[in-house]
Design goal:
single chain; about 290 residues; mainly beta; Jelly Rolls; 3 helices; about 5% helix; globular
């Protein structure tokens, strides 16, 4: 956790709409990678039949189908993941086969070191960020590892735009689509003490407003940033940085937030994490929660 003496590491971002893709990650695909200290986001443009494979991934990862349906195979199991669904894939060998052309998003922990090394913003992590708490994996899922698929439309709740899911090392908030620009009188500037936020824009354009905290040394101070990004794009907001985001323009805005490890504050709020029954919290957190009731 920051002591207030270290300057906040600046945000970094990757813009697939404006930057050249990786063409050798998976045959017949174009890919862009953005990393944080503890997570890696891979966005792939695929043709029908393209296969995204992991020979031996060290831990679970997530697949978000923002476009085409895909077939996912792992540990001898095969499912078809419909458009607008999230799938948690177990460790080990796995494949994701596109059943139509479109865009597929995969989210990994930084244990996928081969992917992290190829991120478009990898230079921002040439040195470790001391303000980011490390990943300590949460307990294994109830019933063991397997493919777990969630149809996003089943998790829309009136009065909330949040749809939160977690695995042992990752948490994702797949917000609902904003049909109108965000009201600038109702923004939510805030900061996180010791974890990063990865924000993936799937549709629309967003402005990410960032304010870096002052340290005792004025030479470390940074100007506010107002980063306008089109879709698709990925930005990583660093600890202690005050931030809020808003969609602009006529196109509906869709933003997905990624965290690693899972956020304890979200997890302690009853009903916030959609798959909480499948992924238990650490025992010490569960005991403390019971004592507070």
């Amino acid at each position: 956790m920051t002591t207030g003496k270290e300057p906040a590491q600046p945000a970094s971002w990757v813009r697939p709409y404006a930057e050249p893709p990786l063409t050798d990650l998976d045959p017949g695909t174009k890919a862009w990678i953005c990393r944080g200290a503890n997570f890696v986001i891979v966005l792939s443009e695929v043709e029908a039949g393209a296969v995204l494979s992991r020979a031996d991934n060290p831990d679970e990862y997530m697949v978000l189908t923002t476009g085409p349906a895909v077939a996912i195979e792992a540990q001898g199991e095969r499912i078809e993941a419909a458009p607008d669904s999230l799938t948690i894939v177990p460790p080990g060998a796995s494949t994701v086969t596109a059943l139509a052309a479109g865009q597929v998003v995969r989210m990994f922990s930084s244990a996928a070191a081969d992917l992290a090394a190829r991120a478009g913003n990898a230079d921002a992590y040439a040195r470790p960020n001391p303000t980011v708490a490390p990943i300590v994996p949460w307990p294994e899922p109830a019933g063991g590892y397997r493919l777990r698929n969630y149809r996003l439309a089943d998790y829309v709740h009136e009065g909330s735009n949040m749809r939160v899911f977690r695995s042992r090392s990752l948490m994702v908030n797949i917000t609902t689509v904003r049909d109108e620009p965000r009201d600038t009188s109702k923004l939510t500037p805030h900061s996180h003490a010791d974890f990063e936020q990865g924000s993936l824009t799937v549709s629309g354009s967003y402005v990410h407003h960032l304010r870096y905290p002052w340290t005792p040394d004025m030479a470390d101070w940074r100007e506010d940033q107002h980063i306008e990004l089109q879709s698709p794009s990925m930005v990583v907001i660093t600890p202690t940085t005050i931030h809020t985001s808003r969609n602009i323009g006529d196109e509906p805005g869709w933003l997905i937030d990624v965290f690693a490890p899972p956020r304890m504050d979200f997890s302690k709020r009853e009903g916030v994490v959609a798959n909480a029954a499948e992924y238990p919290m650490p025992e010490e957190a569960t005991a403390a929660q019971k004592e507070s009731v």
